[in-house]
Amino acid sequence: MKKRWQSCLWLLVAWMLVGVAAAADDLPVGKSDFVFVDQRGNADKPIRVWAYRPAGLTADSPITFVMHGVLRNGETYREPWIPLADRYRTLVVVPEFSLEHYRDHSTYQFGNLRTNDGQSIEESKWTFSAIEHLFDHLKAATGNRRERYFLFGHSAGAQFVHRLAMFKTGARIELAVAANAGSYTMPKFDVKFPFGLGDSTLTEPRLRSALSVPLLVLLGERDIDPNDPHLPKNSEAEAQGPHRLARGRNFFRAAEAEAKRLKTPLRWKLTTVPEVGHDNSKLAPIAARAMFESR
Questions:
Q1: Would you tell me how many other CB atoms lie within 10 Å of the CB of residue 273?
Q2: Rounded CA gap, 97 and 131, in Å?
Q3: Number of separate helices (H) and strands (E) present in the chain
């Protein structure tokens, strides 16, 4: 009986190892894409993932998530990161939140925290949580041992990134980079969510914790067009500044003020880039240097 039990145990272990190997084979060297079904979150809303795996990736290589903009063009956002992935030996992963399943700003860049009538949504179904779930999936599929991940987003993707850093308690972020966001959740309780913290789930103790998350606000100094067709123009966004550069600077100033008021350290940083406007491809290398060279 004991030998039969041991035999069954070894068969189970062997089956698990074969499963891991098969999953790893699904992520080949070079470009690939696959559909991620988040069984721990919104299993009815599959996410296509555009990936790039450089040669020589090891179990200790970093994993970098790249968040696309309002056009939901994950494949396009992957391209500028390919040479950076080769240079820094990082797995690049671009989850695409399609308009078919994530139809508006509330379900993508606002994180799916609430229904359209203002009801709270359980945290496992936040789009922020999908990143954590996908991280676990990738670690299992590739045998990766990293405990934290890097996160970059541009434009609407930057909205997603900074809100994830603020609201997702315990997110395993090594460094988050929010580049050229069109609007922000200001760290102010007198402004209502999603443009402030009022009437949100984020409490003052949680804000202290959020201000300690490694977050880089990255801004192109020429991203100053107040008439950009994709710039949010509702009154709450306009109150943050006339264009993306001003809004980003005001967001960071508000964080500095809150950190001072709460007497808590601020791990957020602000970098502005001369001669660059609303250009994802020109900011990606700067973000990568901050991730892999400046730490």
A1: 18
A2: 11
A3: 9, 8
Burial class of residue 89 in the structure, from the number of CB atoms within 10 Å of its CB (0-12 exposed, 13-18 middle, 19+ buried)? middle
Say how far residue 100 (Cα) sits from the centre of its chain: 20
Three-state DSSP at 52 gives: strand
Task: Compute the Cα dihedral for 131, 137, 139, 142 and give only its sign.
Answer: negative
Token pair listed for 7 = 């035999």
Distance, C-alpha 16 to centroid of its chain? 30
Q: Which residues pair with 48 in a beta bridge?
A: 35, 96
pLDDT in tens, 220-269: 999 999 999 999 999 999 999 999 999 999 999 999 999 999 999 999 99
**Domains located in the chain, CATH noted:** 29-292 (3.40.50.1820)
* Cβ atoms 28, 53 nearer than 8 A: yes
The residue type of 191 is V
Residues in the chain: 295
Q: Do 101 and 35 touch, CB atoms closer than 8 A?
A: no
